[in-house]
């Protein structure tokens, strides 16, 4: 997960309420840490419960900046923030008085603030964030301070006489990491781990709204209630973080977070790039260093664009810890780090289902492999060339962790990092130094320490633990990426690729690689723009896909490509004849949809955790809630939405250009797309299939296609890992 902590940002605020006209908060001059500390600004809640309830803002007598982002910002002529009162209200219900005041806050700092929050603090000598608490007659009510509680803004539903959360108000956050908030030199004893979020990104000159809400017990005699009080808060931003560039899916939280599971073979693992952010009390980025004392290998790869970036690998299976310190060198002995990130060396990622053009594959929980569908070249791997409508066992395979399917061949990756292949071998697809087909698995020559595999139409890819990529098979379109168009019966190195963390090559003649910096490279055929570099020129070496960052997963079809981004959205490019880009484009005169040679956004997707596309012209997306969306060509029902035609009717438009739900699917954990069929693995180890089924590739003991998901005759399928 993202590791972030708050740092103090701007002058301390003393909050109290307002019913006066708009007020501008003017910070006093900057003070150094050896000057008399103070609590900053005051916003007074006054006459609470009376008809003249009000709130007003004034400068404190003394102040010291917590973090002065601009050294000149803390002056009367150039305030750090301005506050304009919007409203103040109070009501009593159920024995509780609710008090709140809303302000329009404007950023006058001159810099963009990251996740600005107002956080309550306890001043020195106090025990709560509240001070200056008095009764109606002005007498001391400090004993009641502990009964005052901060919280989310609320509203009174007059129809039901109930208190409702005001969802439109500024969020009140709990569980904030305030362990590194520096309050030295300030009149602050402690910082609360709660606060009001103003804005996730707060640009200079921008304005946002914040509502400070307080509740307190309402006495039967209002004169016994606090009548005036002040709330002490500080302005803080997330100025301390430890974040990996490529994120990893957490199936427990169903979100993407830091890259913590490192696929490892022997003493090598795939890399992750970690960016460190550390702001000083002037809001300026300062040096930080990433360290490890227990087997992680860390290299400083900082640059002007990424001033605190580190390359991380692990050298053994098991637990390790990354530690962030200030400065440029790691301490000689382990000390108290600013932040820590546990990471683990694990085996290769489990990819339990795959689909070839006309056949399907699944790994059982015991590490064996089942296959079904078309078998004319032995791609089912059971020693025959007989098609099968139900799963059969691939001969002699154990300890398999990932499978991939091409047009007529199949691949299996073992937990030990070797690769097996079977099926068609006319162009060296099997990588064993021959062009002889095989109906049973054979070993791909010379490959060790492999952590992922992918299969194109008649070529294959292997990602090694050191972040390099090997390829073999057909190379007529440069899909091997070695600078030639000569096919190879044994693995060759893809040119210039390092720090790769994922590869993809669907049923086409192009390939993709995701790097640890979140960018994507592509190579091979580009007639439809499937390389995504703004051209339709084929490339025999990797080129950069235009404008992509923050990518977490890649997938490819026959002539198009997909990527999943950290925010759960999907981008696509390449062939769009059946609408497989999902960008809602209008059909051309020939009723096909226009291609794109650069990434475009797939519409109506926002919470995706996995994408898939096989040898055809359709695409699949798995949502965090376990449901599935599909789009693209639908001639054989491969979209699973109960039809075989697109929204514009019958031939020649058979595709859907925007995602739509697959019918009656839930609890899905993995997807695979074939030439014209689709597969889904469920959390209970069962599978569903839909689409074309002439060769039995749906595995349901029939050859009848299905436009909706139908059960595959299999159970006990392995579950995927991050």
UniProtKB/TrEMBL annotation:
InterPro entries: Ran_GTPase-activating (IPR051553), RCC1-like_dom (IPR058923), RCC1/BLIP-II (IPR009091), Reg_chr_condens (IPR000408)
Domain called RCC1-like: residue spans: 450-713
The keyword S-adenosyl-L-methionine appears for this protein: no
Pfam families for the chain: RCC1, WD40_RLD
Entry keywords, A to Z: Guanine-nucleotide releasing factor, Repeat, Signal
Region (Disordered): 574-593
Signal peptide: 1-19
The keyword Repeat appears for this protein: yes
Record's protein name: RCC1-like domain-containing protein
Species: Deinococcus ruber
């Amino acid at each position: 997960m993202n590791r972030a902590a708050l740092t103090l940002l701007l002058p301390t605020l003393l909050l109290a309420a307002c019913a006066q006209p708009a007020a501008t908060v003017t910070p006093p001059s900057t003070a150094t840490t050896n000057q008399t500390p103070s609590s900053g600004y005051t916003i007074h809640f006054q006459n609470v419960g009376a008809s003249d309830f009000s709130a007003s803002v004034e400068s404190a007598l003394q102040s010291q900046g917590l973090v002065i982002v601009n050294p000149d910002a803390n002056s009367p002529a150039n305030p750090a923030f301005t506050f304009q009162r919007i409203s103040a209200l109070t009501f009593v219900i159920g024995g509780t008085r609710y008090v709140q005041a809303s302000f329009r806050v404007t950023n006058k700092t001159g810099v963009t603030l990251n996740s600005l929050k107002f956080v309550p603090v306890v001043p020195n000598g106090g025990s709560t964030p509240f001070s200056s608490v008095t009764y109606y007659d002005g007498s001391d009510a400090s004993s009641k301070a502990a009964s005052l509680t901060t919280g989310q803004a609320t509203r009174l539903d007059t129809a039901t006489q109930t208190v409702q959360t005001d969802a439109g108000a500024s969020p009140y956050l709990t569980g904030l990491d305030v362990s590194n908030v520096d309050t030295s030199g300030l009149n602050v004893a402690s910082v609360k781990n709660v606060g009001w979020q103003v804005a996730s990104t707060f640009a200079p000159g921008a304005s946002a709204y914040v509502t400070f809400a307080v509740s307190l017990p309402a006495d039967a005699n209002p004169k016994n209630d606090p009548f005036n009080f002040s709330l002490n808060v500080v302005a803080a931003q997330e100025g301390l973080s430890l974040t990996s560039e490529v994120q990893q899916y957490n199936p427990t939280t169903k979100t993407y977070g830091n890259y913590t599971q490192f696929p490892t073979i022997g003493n090598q693992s795939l890399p992750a790039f970690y960016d460190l952010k550390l702001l000083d009390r002037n809001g300026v980025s300062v040096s930080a260093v990433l360290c490890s004392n227990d087997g992680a290998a860390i290299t400083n790869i900082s640059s002007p664009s990424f001033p605190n970036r580190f390359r991380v690998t692990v050298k053994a299976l098991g637990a390790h810890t990354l530690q962030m310190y200030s400065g440029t060198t790691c301490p000689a002995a382990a000390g108290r780090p600013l932040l820590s990130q546990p990471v683990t060396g694990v085996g290769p990622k489990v990819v339990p289902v795959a689909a070839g053009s006309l056949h399907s594959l699944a790994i059982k929980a015991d590490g064996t492999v089942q296959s079904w569908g078309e078998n004319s070249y032995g791609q089912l791997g059971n020693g025959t060339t007989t098609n099968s409508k139900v799963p059969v066992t691939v001969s002699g395979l154990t300890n398999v962790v990932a499978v991939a399917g091409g047009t007529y061949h199949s691949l299996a990756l073992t937990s030990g990092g070797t690769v097996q292949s079977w099926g068609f071998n006319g162009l060296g697809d099997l990588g064993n130094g021959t062009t002889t087909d095989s109906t049973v698995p054979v070993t791909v020559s010379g490959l060790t320490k492999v952590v992922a595999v992918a299969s194109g139409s008649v070529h294959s890819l292997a990602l090694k633990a050191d972040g390099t990529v090997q390829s073999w098979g057909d190379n007529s379109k440069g899909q091997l990426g070695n600078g030639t168009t000569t096919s190879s019966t044994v693995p060759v190195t893809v040119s210039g690729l390092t720090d790769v963390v994922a590869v993809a090559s669907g049923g086409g003649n192009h390939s993709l690689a995701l790097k640890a910096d979140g960018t994507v490279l592509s190579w091979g055929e580009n007639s439809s723009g499937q390389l995504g570099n703004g051209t339709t020129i084929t490339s025999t070496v990797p080129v950069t896909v235009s404008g992509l960052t923050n990518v977490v997963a890649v997938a490819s079809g026959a002539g198009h490509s997909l990527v999943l981004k950290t925010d759960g959205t999907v981008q696509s490019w390449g062939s769009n004849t059946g609408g497989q880009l999902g960008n809602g484009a209008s059909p051309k005169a020939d009723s096909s949809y226009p291609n794109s040679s650069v990434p475009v956004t797939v519409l109506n997707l926002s919470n995706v955790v996995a994408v898939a596309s096989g040898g055809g012209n359709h695409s699949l997306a798995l949502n965090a809630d376990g449901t599935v969306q599909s789009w693209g060509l639908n001639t054989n029902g491969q979209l699973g939405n109960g039809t075989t035609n697109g929204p514009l009717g019958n031939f020649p438009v058979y595709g859907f250009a925007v995602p739509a739900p697959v019918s009656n699917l839930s609890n899905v954990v993995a997807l695979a797309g074939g030439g014209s069929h689709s597969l889904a693995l469920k959390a209970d180890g069962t599978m569903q299939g839909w689409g074309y089924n002439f060769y039995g590739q749906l595995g349901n003991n029939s050859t009848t296609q299905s436009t909706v998901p139908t059960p595959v005759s299999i159970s006990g399928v392995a579950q995927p890992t991050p």
